[in-house]
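User: Hello! I'm new to structural biology and keep hearing that structure can be predicted from sequence alone. Could you demonstrate with Glutaredoxin? Please show me the input and the output so I can see what each looks like.

Assistant: Of course. The first part below is the input, the amino acid sequence of Glutaredoxin. The second part is the output, the predicted structure written as tokens.
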Amino acid sequence: MSPVTIYTKGWCPYCSAAKDLLDRKGVAYREIDIEATAGARTEMIQRANGRSTVPQIFVGERHVGGCDDIHALDARGELDRLLAA
């Protein structure tokens, strides 16, 4: 399974929704709170090609996007395939 990284803020409902989806699928992920980790916001923006909202989700090195994006991938049946790669 490809490693998953999710950049979050502790109070963000979209972050919670994205993490809930991953939790329901039994996916382990590395969570990086951009408010609690020095330099994480800058790192996230660079990795996400300028996107500055949270969450920003990566599967391996592939940028998946945010909460709506990961839910859309799941609805199309593409998330499981991506995670298994």
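User: So the tokens describe the shape?

Assistant: Right, they're a compact way of writing down the 3D structure. Reading them back into a model, for example: Residues 2 and 83 are 5 Å apart (CA to CA).
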